[in-house]
Structures are given as C-alpha cells and as structure tokens.
Amino acid sequence: MIPDIPGLKHADSGNFFLLAGPCAVESEEMTFRIAETVAEVCDKLKIPYVFKASYRKANRSKLDSFTGIGDEKALKILASVRERLDIPVITDIHTAEEAALTADYVDVLQIPAFLARQTELLVTAGKTGKVINIKKGQFMAPGAMRLAAEKVRSAGNDRIILTERGTMFGYRDLIVDYRGIPEMRATGYPVVLDVTHSLQQPNQETGVTGGRPDMIETIARAGIAVGVDGIFLETHSDPGNAKSDGANMLYLNLIENMLTNLTKLKSAYNNL
Questions:
Q1: CB 259 within 8 A of CB 52
Q2: pTM across the whole model
Q3: What is the distance between the alpha carbons of residues 120 and 95, in angstroms, rounded to a whole number?
Q4: In the chain, is it the N or the C terminus that has fewer CB atoms within a 10 Å radius of its CB?
C-alpha cells in the first residue's frame, strides 16, 4: 500500500516508499544536501520518497540538548525543499497548536511515539486534512494502534500511516517484534518500519541516546521480508557531529547501496 501523498513520485513502481532525512533541520545547506542526495538515489531506484526532518525537537533527555534553529526558520527551509526539489515533506508535531502551524509548510504530519495516545493532538492533526503518520508508542501493542487511528478518523480524515519503531526491552534497549507488522497492516493502513529509531539505546545516564547503526540494514531487510509498505530512516553526512540522534543514524554515503539491496528484496517479495 502506498499512501496518498501529494507529489509522491514513482507511486506505481511496486517499490516500498521511503521517509528519510536528518533527525532535525540544522541548517539550510545541510538540509538540502541530504534531501538532494536521497532524492537522486530514489529517482534512480524508482522509490517513492518523502523527505523527513524535524523542525523542532521537543522530547530531549537533557535540558540543554539541541531543540532547533527556530520554528519559522526551519519550517521555511522545509517548504523550500518541497518547492525547489518537488518532493513531499514530513515533520513532527507535538501539540494541537502545532498542527495548524505546520500544515501550510509540509505534506505529512508525524505524531511522535511518546504522543501516540494524545487524543486532542490526533484529532486536531486529523482536522488539517494532511496525511498523518502515527508512530507506535514504545509502550503500545500493535493492535492498540487501531484506536489511535480512529481518533484521526473521527476528524473525517482516513489518510493515515502507522509506523513501528520498536518496543522497550528493559530500560536501555528496544526490540522489534515483527509480528506487529502484519497485525498493523490488517487495519488497512500503510505500515512503515522506522529502522533507525528501533535501534536506539535510550535512557543513558549521560542524557544522550545511544544506538546500533551497524544493524540498520539488517533491521530494514527483515522489515521488507515481512511486508512493510515503507521504510523510515534518519541519515546524515556526519552522524558523529549531528545535533540530534547521531548515534543511530545512517551515514549518507551508505544509503544508495542499502536502498539498492532493499529494492532487490522488495522485488523478490513481490514475486512470492
């Protein structure tokens, strides 16, 4: 299933769709460099592509962690990516007020996993008419995502995506239960596997989340094998110096090889 996102290219290619970009908007130059690189690879491989970057980071562990370059400045950069590169764009929202603020700048609104049960947020997001991507809370069962989707539908909006991003495994690790993919797909909505956030190692005493980027392609391959409709990943040209979530991001120079491998697996899956 491919979601009905305005401007989405290659939607009839039979490929998975991709939500990818840096964790956050750090600068205009960095944002465009990543967007252009990924868009070029996706055009080559016929992958439907939505550029992702958070205009604001609201759920940081430490008080002094990077939260953004300013809401209006970051949103204008996202809108510029959409216009100049002719690709759809997704960003996170955290409050009901942010739904209306961001809707004019992007094509898809994303509900962070920590907020997947916030009724007012989900309903208000639905009222914008935008495609809504709901990330499954690390504390939620896959079947419970049907209830989250119903909150968006109550606003007259059935343009919904559900995203798996791992389940808490102890205090400082996550695990992906791949049984949840077909269970969420049974709702009739497209399902995405958030590969990089599923590899986070949260709750570190330093206040900086760890990760396992060496496992990114492994997790993504398994997702394709069980039938996910889309892949979500964060990528950066220099993850070690990224201002947010660098520990679990994919190096930008590795993305073409990985996506090439995933398209081959998707083709094999389609021919089963």
A1: no
A2: 0.92
A3: 8
A4: C
> 96-149 pLDDT, tens per residue?
999 999 999 999 999 999 999 999 999 999 999 999 999 999 999 999 999 999
- Residue found by looking up tokens 């970057």 in the block: 53
Q: Which residue type sits at 127?
A: K
Residue 24 is classified by DSSP as B
Residue holding tokens 């991507």?
Answer: 133
Alpha helices (H) in the chain, listed in sequence order: 28-45, 71-85, 96-103, 119-127, 145-153, 180-185, 216-225, 255-270
Cβ(149)–Cβ(160) below 8 Å:
yes
Rounded CA-CA distance 52/90 in Å is 5
Distance CA 101, CA 80 (A): 16
Structure-token pair, residue 21: 């970009």
Closest to 162 measured CA to CA, from 20, 140, 127, 10: 140
How many CB atoms within 10 Å of residue 171? 9
Q: Using an 8 Å Cβ cutoff, are 72 and 25 in contact?
A: no
Neighbouring-strand partners of residue 234: 21
- Topology at the third CATH level for domain 17-267: TIM Barrel (3.20.20)
State how far the alpha carbon of 44 is from the alpha carbons of 13, 30, 75, 84, 94, in Å.
12, 22, 28, 19, 34
Q: List, for residues 162-197, the tens digit of each pLDDT value.
A: 999 999 888 888 899 999 999 999 999 999 999 998
Tokens standing for residue 128: 């914008």
Cβ partners under 8 Å of residue 88, min gap 6: 5, 6, 7, 8, 50, 51, 82, 106, 107, 108
| Residue type at position 46 | K
Candidates 247, 230, 252, 21; CA nearest to 135 is: 230
